[in-house]
Structure formats: C-alpha cells, structure tokens
Specification:
Two copies of one chain form a homodimer.
Chain A (H helix, E strand, L loop, with lengths): L4 E11 L2 E2 L4 E6 L2 E6 L9 E4 L3 E5 L1 E6 L15 H13 L4 H17 L2 E8 L2 H11 L2 E8 L5 H18 L7 E7 L7 H14 L3 E5 L3 H11 L3 H7 L7 E5 L5 H9 L3 E4 L1 H6 L7 H6 L4 E3 L12 H16 L7 H8 L1 H6 L17 E5 L12 H8 L5 E6 L2 E5 L2 E2 L4 H17 L2
Parallel strand pairs in A: 1-5, 1-6, 7-8, 8-9, 9-10, 11-12, 12-13, 13-14
Antiparallel strand pairs in A: 1-2, 1-3, 3-4, 6-15, 15-16, 16-17, 17-18
C-alpha cells in the first residue's frame, strides 16, 4: 500500500452512543485514523474532504450475507423458505460456478459501498472468487464457506477441506481486509460430526464460526424431534458454542436458550427483513439486548430481502421490536446504530479495529449528506435522523481501510455499469441452464 | 394551463396487476394520457422523454399524511403515542402559524415528489396555507382540516366552519388538483354531535371524510368504556360510516368491525411504519384484503415515521403482514403495488382520474430507473423489484397532471435548497418558542 493521507474537515462525528456536538477534523494516515481534533491545519495531505453539513459515522457492518446471491434478487418472492430454497434457489445454484459468484459478489459490493457498508460477513460457495471481488472492491470482509454434509462422511471431509483451503489462501489477504471464518451451514444441514470437527479446528487455529441457527419453527421442530433438544441446547450439548460463534437469524428462542447464548457469549446476527419476508418469525431482540447479549445486524442475501441497505435494515429492526413488544421505547435509534457498527465489529472479533471512529482504529468511515429531502430539518438527534429518516442513498462518501471507495456517490474502485451488464448476462445464462 | 404535449418513449409500463412486457410509447396532452401504443411517431410535441431501461408506473398515492409536520421530523422518537403527542408535538404545535405550515408543506412536497408520490391526502391545520404550497408544487392533494371539539359546542361550530371555508376556498382549485374532504380528527377527540354534523354536511355537499380510527389499544378501551361499543361499532351506530369515509390506522379490529367496514364499503389507510414506531400494533391487512375491503397506504406524518417514502412504506406493509401471519404468501408485491396506486385512488374517490396508467386518465406518472445498484439484475417480476428492492431515491422522473415536477431527480417547480433553509429556520424558531 502506498503512503496515503486524507484530511476530513468539519465533520459531525456520530459514534454509537457518543456524539460530539461540534464539527471535528479527522486525519487519516494510510489505513488508520491518526488524529481527531477541533482543527487540523496540516495542509501537506494527499486529499482534503470537506464534510460540512455531513455526518461522519463508522462504516456499517453487515454480519450476515450471501453476497453472490445478489444475482438472484427478485428471482422468487412471496414464498416460504422451503419453497423458495427447494424449488427456486437450489435449482439455479446447481449451475453456479466461480465466475458467476465473482460477478454476484462484485454486484453486491457495489451495493454495499453505495449504501455505506464497509465490512460484511459472508457465507457461500466459490469463496475464493468472492475474495477476488473483495480484493478488487476495497471493502472489508469475513468470508466463510457454507459447509453442508447431511451426515455424509466423504462430503464432510471435502467440505471442511474446502473451508480450510479458503483459510490458508485468503485469511489476512487484501492488506488484511479479508478474514476467514468457518461456515457450517446450520444444525439441520451439518452433522454433529461436522460441527464437532469445526469446533476443534476453530480452537486450534483461532478461527471464528458463522452459522444459521433457529431461523424457522420447522427447524426447531426438526432438530427437537431428531436430537430431543432445541437447536441452541443441542449446539451447547456438543460443546459447539462460544464467543467466536456468530449465529444468524436466531428467531425462535426459549428462555433457556437465551440463558445459554448469554452464558457462552454467543453473538447474534439479526436479519429482520429476511425473517419478515420469508415469514420466519420475529427474533426477541429487545430481550436479548436486556440480557446484554451482543446483537448485530445482517441483511441476509439480496434474494430474500431484496436489497443490502443496512440503514433500511436497522430501521426495520427498531420498528419491528417496538410493535412486537408493543413498547415504543425498545431498540432506540442509538441502540440500532450500535447494532449496525460496534456490535457488528464485536461479533466478528474486530472491535479493536473497526466499529467506532477513534484514533488508532482502521479508517473505515462513511459520510452522510443531511442536505436531502428525507433528512431536513436535521434533528438534534442524529442517530434518529439516520436510522428512521435516511436510507442508503443518503451515503455520500465511503472510505475503507483508508481508501476512498466512493466520493459524491461516484465509485472509485469498481465500474458500476460494466458490473450491471455482466450481472444481467450471468443471471440470464443461469436461468437458461435450469 | 397552456397547451402542453409530452411523448415518453420506450417505457415498460407497470400497472397494478397488469404488465405489458414490451416497451410502449405514451403521449400526454395537457393534463391527460392521450395515447399508449407500441410506437408513437408524432414528433410535433413539446418534450420527448427517453424511458429506456425505466419502469413507468402510476404516480403513488399516499392516503394519510400531516404534511406540515415534516418540520417535526425527528423532534421526538422512541416514545408512546401519548407522550409523543402530549409532551412533544402539541407544545410545538401550539406555536404554529400559517407560514410554518406552508413551509412544512413545501418541505413535505419536495420529499413526496422526489420519492414518486403524486397524490396525498392530508389532515392538519392552516390548510389554506398548505393549499398554497400544493398549488406551487404541482402535486395533487385531498386536504382536510383536522376538527377537534372535545364536546365543546362553540369549538365545534368554529371547527366545522373552518373546514367548510377550506372547501369553499380550495375545492377544485389548482387546475382541479386540490380536492377538500372533512377531517374530524378521531372518535375520541371529535364529539358525537360533530361526527353527525359532518356526516350530514358530507351527504349534502358530496364531500369525502378523512378520520383516524382505532389506532391504539388505549383508544379502543377509552371509546368502549365511554360508548359501550368499539370505535367502528360506535361510528356505525351513529350512521357515520359509508364508502366516502377513509379511516387511517384501523389497527385493532374485531371480526364484527371488519364486517361493518366491508358492509359499509369504508376505505382503510394502512400506516405500518407509524404503527410500528409508536408501537400502536399491527393492522390485520391481509384479513381486510381477503374480505375485499379497499386498503390503501399512508405514511402518516414524517414525525412518526420519519420519512414520506411510500415505496419503503409498501415494502414494510408486505413484510409486516407476512411475519404477523407467518404466511409468506400474503400481501404480495402485486397487492402492495395496488395498495400504493389504484386502491389509494379508490379510497379518495379518484379512481376515474388516477391510480393506473390508462388513456383518458390524468397524466400522473413516475419513471423508476432500474439501472441502479439496488435494482440489478432486473427481475422479470417488476413489482417485486420496486416493492422489495427499490426505495424513493430510485424515482427518476415525476409527472403530475401532465406537468413534469422532477426530471433526472431535478425539481422543476420548487427550489429545494431554499426550502431546506427556510424549514430549518422555522423549526429553530418553533423550538425557541416553547
């Protein structure tokens, strides 16, 4: 990485639960935030950004995606998870290859950057091709290979080998922007043997784990009838859970399971739009937060959402908890903002690097332009203005690892129109192949 | 109105439940859609719009707003309806005047136009000042004065007189873009006498009615204990209900009330974001639709939402019904789109003029640019792409009554920056006056 300094002038900095009501200057040196103060006069910088009338936040953290599935946006809607997966998604996925996953990931990366997400945690196939897209796009990612064995020993070995190869080839690559996790798909698609092996390898190699747990009532019923335990109880009984496990969805939770999650410091990735669209259910997020459990946010894939706009997702999260509990005071805009930033960083084990705007942390920052029809007048409560009024289109500038990825809504690392063209062609080819 | 012709070329027309999978040309003459066909070669027009890669829809219809309250966006959040109104909104409203309502309405009009809404139904105060903003902005509106008497006879007479004056001065003005309804606030703030008088005057003058009904459990309890009947039963018992009554919210409904609504052909304006944010509850929309009741959509005021983006509102409506019923097949994107267009037109008694793209109807049209990160690849299901993937920022062009109000996201009738400045100043003054 070449030497690089950026000076951001006059930004209102909004950290989760900490807002300085006075514009600040921020100096970025290479990949790090080097100084924050009332005025930085250093003129000897490579680039000056005027952030007057803009809010500066930590880059958003999307903790559960299947980025290549952005190709399948709108492919099938208004269906149950079962019909959606079995009859629509899996037949198309059967014809996937590395190139399609690469193009899908590039398309997703464009959308992430344009809506203010700088870090995402992904689980899918052809992950080295996804890594290539991440390398090129400049964003930060935690990648895991979605391991499914359905109890087949040979498949299990191959799946684990695939995820280990991903680790060996991609972990800490792209100037450290790419980390690799294990991705056992779920307790109903990954066998007990696979889960135990993953736990062992995760401990040995200090690798985090990304898994779907308790998404639907059907899953609860299936796991309960097979194992005699609810999903989190089962995972706990085999020693799988720990602070390095990020569980997506986690919709249907008993009090005992919430106790287990709290005790084992398991991280939860809440996916409200997907859970609503697939009618999976409403996760008890406010109860989890009351129990000091780390709840982060995720969009899930764009084909069950159908976009990757994390600001929209955070609004939906807040509003859904309020109506589900009939208590308008739960999941405030401050709490929601924390879910989208520092909680995400904690979930991914990256809280020392990202999730807040602080000297010494990575320069993963976004600027939101408040001079927009949906954000005027600017409330004194900036988190409310962002969570409840804004959407991803209000993000003006996206910086990741000290590199500007978007300025004035123009991308710097990716060619939008070329990616759109290739994505359309890829989907056409995939549909023809069914 | 001067003579005016616009030719839109190569648009994919998406009507509610009717999509022609072949680009069409649309000729607008003055305020009306004059021709739709495969190719219109008339070159003798004032303006040609190239709609290649764009979806053309009827302008969206927002059936419940308090447009001037856009000034109060983010003023108070994460509170119950009671605390929000009593401790925050009403103290600021005490210092409102016509100028503030005019500026608030202009600010709201900017947001409506920029997010694709061409018609809205408003209830508030200083409505002649709101009418002035509508006249200038070029959008279409149904305006009602929010009548509250709390049983006070003198107040009642003054309130009715105010709404009648609004009718006399503004109904059918602005080239017919402004209609006036009666706006009795609710069954708990308007007395039985007021409601009966409104019903009588509505019949005599053929004026529609806009009212809040059954928003919160508290309202059900209060009305039930005072009247011995639930709100819709009470309104029915005094002969108030009919096909010209649009009821906002309608969250808490008994089976008997749903029967009454159906039998009297009452129109419902569903406001999911507001109902969620204020934790009012979840309206049984899919059950209402099953009963062939006309359900339209509304954002409510921007201070309980906190924006006026009707596409976001329609997505929330669909997703909320799916999760509330645990049935992913209810409130499909097609049904949602109908709620935002033709159902809104029907609710406002304007189905002969707006709500679909048809020859002979008013030229109230919007173009959505699908060449955007959150909408690629373009699904073959256009309504899914709009309802589930898009938001208001994807609207490229807004036309109302044959006049272009926005083209390539640039407003033609209003000065955005000037309005933002005045709105900020107005809110500052209002806050100081408390």
């Amino acid at each position: 990485m070449e030497n690089n300094t950026i000076l951001i002038k006059n930004a209102l900095i909004l950290n989760p639960n900490n807002f300085i009501n006075k514009p600040q200057d921020i100096l970025i040196k290479n990949d790090l935030i080097s100084e924050i103060s009332d005025e930085i006069t250093d003129e000897n910088v490579d680039k000056i950004i005027d952030a007057t009338e803009k809010i500066l936040l930590p880059g958003l953290v999307n903790t559960h995606t299947h980025l290549s599935m952005t190709l399948f946006r709108g492919l099938a809607d208004d269906l149950s998870l079962d019909e959606w997966l079995n009859d629509n998604i899996w037949p198309v996925e059967a014809n996937l290859n590395g190139y399609y996953c690469y193009i899908g990931a590039l398309l997703g990366a464009v959308e992430l950057i344009k809506s203010g997400t700088t870090t995402f945690s992904d689980m899918y196939f052809y992950m080295e091709d996804v890594a290539k897209a991440i390398e090129e796009s400049g964003i930060r990612a935690v990648l895991s290979y979605g391991m499914i064995d359905f109890g087949d020993e040979e498949k299990r070995k191959a799946e684990i080998e695939e995820n280990l190869q991903l680790y060996k080839n991609c972990h800490n690559t792209a100037d450290g922007r790419i980390k690799v996790f294990f991705g056992p798909h779920s307790p109903y698609t990954a066998s007990e043997e696979l889960l135990k092996e993953v736990r062992k390898l995760a401990d040995e190699n200090n690798i985090g784990i990304h898994i779907h747990v308790s998404e639907t009532q059907k899953e609860i019923n299936d796991v309960s009838s097979e194992k005699g335990l609810r999903p989190f109880e089962y995972l706990d009984s085999i020693g799988f859970l720990g602070p390095d496990v990020v569980c997506a969805h986690s919709v249907w939770l008993s009090d005992n399971e919430i106790e287990i999650i709290k005790e084992k410091d398991v991280k939860i990735s809440h996916n409200p739009c997907s859970n609503m669209k697939l009618a999976s259910g409403i996760a008890p997020v406010s109860k989890l937060l009351e129990n000091d459990i780390c709840v982060a946010i995720g969009t899930d894939g764009a084909s069950s959402n159908n976009n990757l706009d994390l600001i929209e997702e955070l609004k939906t999260a807040s509003l859904l908890q309020k109506v589900a509990t009939l208590d308008p005071k739960v999941l405030t805009s401050d709490e929601s903002l924390a879910m989208g930033t520092i909680n995400g960083a904690r979930a991914l084990g990256l809280e020392d690097e990202i999730g807040t705007v602080e000297v010494g942390k990575k320069a993963d920052l976004i600027l939101i332009d408040t001079n927009s029809a949906n954000m005027v007048p600017d409330s004194s409560n900036l988190s409310s203005n962002i969570i409840y009024s804004a959407n991803g289109s209000n993000v003006d500038t996206t910086i990741c690892n000290g590199q500007i990825l978007m300025e004035n809504r123009k991308l710097t690392t990716l060619d939008e129109q070329d990616i759109y063209k290739k994505a359309r062609e890829a989907l056409d080819e995939l549909k023809k192949a069914i």
